[in-house]
Amino acid sequence: TDIFGAGDPFSFQFGFDYQIWQGFGSIGIGLSLGFSQNTALACEDDTKDTGAKYSSCSTRTAGSTSFTVFPISVLAVYRFDVLAKYLNIPIVPFVKAGMNYTMWWSSGSSGDTVGGSWGWQVNAGGALLLDWLEPSAAKSLDNDMGINHTYLFFEFLHSRANSFGKFNARHVGDTAWPAGLAIE
Question: What is the overall mean pLDDT for the chain?
Answer without folding.
Answer: 86
